[in-house]
Design a protein that fits this description.
Number of domains of chain A: 2
Radius of gyration of chain B: 23 Å
Distance between the termini of chain A: 22 Å
Shape of chain B: globular
Largest sheet of chain B: none
Structural class of chain A: mainly alpha
CATH class of the largest domain in chain A: Mainly Alpha
Number of domains of chain B: 2
Largest interface: A-B, 98 and 99 residues
Structural class of chain B: mainly alpha
CATH topology of the largest domain in chain A: MetI-like fold
Oligomer: heterodimer
Strand content of chain B: under 5%
Shape of chain A: elongated
CATH architecture of the largest domain in chain B: Orthogonal Bundle
Order of helices and strands of chain B: HHHHHHHHHHHH
CATH superfamily of the largest domain in chain A: MetI-like
Helix content of chain B: over 70%
CATH superfamily of the largest domain in chain B: MetI-like
Number of strands of chain B: 0
Chain lengths: 403, 271
């Protein structure tokens, strides 16, 4: 922070400074933050059923929930399902109700088809002709439950919680808990990658910081080569090296260390994710460490040893504390970047090396459970946001440097 | 200079460990280059390659790369989207950095947070959000939509590099220029811009590289006509593993080296 003049800058100067940032704030808001916000709002706001079946749901308000609803309800449902079928909404509608009670997807879809293609004398016979489950009150209860526009259900699922029959919140049975263990695993992998980066990065940052300027420039280039190389290229490189018939395994076989049929599985699992992510993120650790170590005068260490400290003492009592700002900056940066990693685990992680982001992509693209994807995204967002605030307080986001 | 204990042994261990880390950083990338000249469709060195038998080496994957129209289109897409996104990001980012580095800037912490957010927020969440929002605007499967999205991802880099150049900037120069009668625009053009040009250019290179290397948003928003180089590499890795992607990767490595040296040159000019 710069020191403030006693009076404070005139309002006009402040306005001009703010005005200069305004175009970019507006641009980032429109093209990035607003889409992010609408995505996150999907985790609590889900008007699909309410919009598709308004009349049915209005009639169900007065229903007792025990007996079978009357013919007007069936008629409204048949009509609105037919419209939904024309609008190609039935699949998503079915999926949405299916999340309340499993098995409902096909009930909804068959009911809608029957309403459109095989109308019988009464709407009730029409729907029950599509699927007999329409004759059970449970089906109607599921539809009525799925109508809420605002829901915490996605967040409950994302936190491995559920509502029991009485409506109180309980933890899922152990074998159904997926997302919390995955989040913990992602945090652990990010922590492991951060530690590995620190372990590998600290000595070379020290070496570069204390090398003569010419050599330091060359060594820093070696750190920057992977930094600038495409992520996809680096991931490909690890596949080439580590796969069963890749370079490392072939080398081990040729050297007789490993039998030809005993090749080691080093990729498409957690090892692959760890190794490739450490490689990708190592420059983000080395660069902040280096820029802090460069400013530590070498005579500090000489002073420590002339005062009788041995090398171990002078390292742990003098050098290490001085490098803490760089250690904190590098570690937080690596951890923040690791926690949201998607591409590397997707390509080299196999089934055991998938992380939280991969689950979000799965629900976005494969299961099409967008509400849950948004809730998982919301959780990831909160975790990263909290880490960013820590980073900003500790290191200062405005001091971020590249290379 | 020192290991933890006295003596040449710990010094040697320390150097050996550092050497190992440097090999770990660079070797995986360099290994790709010779393998892209493999005559066989394998991802490892054949015996012939190790004996330096000329028949074991070939340019066939480079032929395949050049002949495959998809790679050519991908290159054109990557360059077009990257240049447009970098231009947009550089103009907006430079102007914002001028405001941000003014000591009078109000709400600096909040605004910095907003401007840095595209770099910090996991791209998977952003990509999912953009997919919904941009498809409402009919901007998915369009080059324009990708340019907007990639420009947003590139702006933090420009803001950071330009702010860094400006932090060494003597504001008295602005005051001097103004006291000599120059308006804000003239001051910017004649005094500030020449001094921050290296920072602006390296910010532009960073922004271009951010777009050139981006694949998650392309996966979510791009159609067949918006396939970029990383997108093509992605399907290469997932679907049809062939050394063609090694040939493409070799090109990208050469590209990265050019960028690296360009940015280092610019950096040495700002010091």
């Amino acid at each position: 922070m710069t020191e403030r003049p006693a009076v404070g800058p005139p309002a006009r100067t402040r306005l001009r400074a703010a005005g200069l940032t305004l175009p970019l704030v507006a641009f980032v808001g429109f093209s990035f933050l607003f889409p992010l916000g609408t995505m996150l709002s999907r985790s609590v706001y889900d008007p699909l059923v309410a919009d598709a079946l308004p009349e049915t749901l209005a009639l169900l308000e007065e229903w007792d929930g025990e007996t079978l609803p009357g013919e007007p309800v069936f008629a409204a449902a048949a009509r609105e399902l037919g419209t939904a079928l024309e609008g190609r909404l039935v699949g998503r509608l079915g999926g949405r109700v299916n999340r309340v009670a499993s098995g409902m997807r096909s009930v909804i879809v068959r009911g809608a088809r029957a309403a459109a293609e095989a109308p019988a004398a009464t709407a009730r016979e029409t729907l029950m002709g599509g699927d007999p489950a329409w004759g059970e009150p449970a089906t109607w209860r599921a539809i009525r439950t799925a109508d809420e526009r605002f829901t915490v259900r996605h967040y409950l699922r994302a936190l491995d919680l559920d509502r029991d029959a009485g409506g109180s919140i309980v933890r899922q049975p152990e074998e159904l808990r997926i997302y919390v263990p995955l989040l913990l695993r992602t945090l652990m992998v990010s922590g492991a990658v951060t530690l590995l980066c620190l372990l590998l990065g600290y000595p070379i940052a020290h070496l570069i910081a204390n090398a003569p300027p010419r050599r330091a420039r060359w060594l820093i280039l070696l750190v920057l080569v992977p930094f600038w190389t495409s992520l996809l290229v680096r991931t490909t490189a690890w596949i080439v090296l580590l796969q069963t018939h890749g370079v490392v395994n072939s080398l081990l076989v040729a050297l007789g260390i490993v039998a030809d049929d005993g090749r080691i599985a080093m990729i498409y699992n957690m090892t692959g994710t760890l190794v490739a992510m450490t490689h990708v993120l190592l420059p983000f650790m080395v660069l902040p460490l280096y820029s802090v170590m460069r400013t530590i005068p070498p005579h500090f260490m000489r002073a420590a040893s002339s005062l009788g400290a041995n090398r171990r003492q002078s390292f742990f009592r003098v050098y290490w504390p001085l490098t803490l700002p760089g250690t904190a900056a590098g570690s937080l940066l690596v951890f923040i970047l690791a926690i949201g990693y998607y591409i590397t685990p997707a390509l080299v992680g196999g089934s055991s090396g998938q992380l939280f982001s991969n689950m979000i992509a799965f629900h976005m693209q494969t299961s099409l459970n967008w509400g849950l994807a948004a809730a998982l995204g919301g959780i990831l967002f909160v975790v990263v946001g909290a880490l960013y605030v820590v980073y900003d307080r500790l290191v200062g986001a405005s001091s971020l440097k590249l290379g | 200079m020192f290991g933890l204990r006295d003596g040449a042994v710990s010094r040697a261990l320390y150097l050996a460990f550092c050497a190992f880390v440097f090999v770990f950083l660079v070797a995986p990338i360099l290994v790709i280059v010779p393998l892209s000249f493999n005559a066989e469709p394998y991802f490892t060195f054949t015996e012939g390659m190790l004996r330096l038998d000329p028949d074991a080496w070939s340019l066939r994957w480079y032929d395949a790369l050049v002949e495959d129209a998809r790679w050519g289109r991908a290159l054109a897409n990557s360059l077009g989207i990257g240049v447009a996104a970098a231009l947009l990001a550089t103009v907006l980012g430079t102007v914002a950095a001028l405001g941000l580095s003014n000591p009078a800037m109000p709400l600096r912490r909040l605004v910095t947070g907003i401007l840095i957010s595209p770099m910090v927020i996991p791209v998977i969440i952003a990509a999912a959000g953009m997919f919904f929002f941009y498809s409402d605007l009919r901007l998915t499967q369009s080059h324009f939509g990708l340019i907007l999205a990639h420009a947003a991802l590139g702006t933090p880099f420009v803001v950071i590099t330009v702010t860094a150049t400006l932090s060494g900037f003597d504001r008295n120069l602005v005051r001097a220029s103004q006291s000599l009668g120059a308006g804000p625009l003239t001051t910017f053009r004649r005094v500030q811009l020449p001094l921050i040009t290296p920072g602006v250019l390296s910010g532009a290179l960073f922004a271009f590289a951010a777009s050139f290397d981006e694949v998650v948003i392309v996966l979510f928003m791009g159609g067949l006509n918006q396939r970029t180089i990383p997108r093509q590499m992605w399907s290469g890795i997932r679907e049809e593993i062939s050394p063609t992607i090694l040939a493409a990767a070799t090109f990208l490595i050469a590209f990265a080296l050019v960028f690296l040296f360009a940015v280092e040159r610019l950096r040495s000019r700002t010091r």
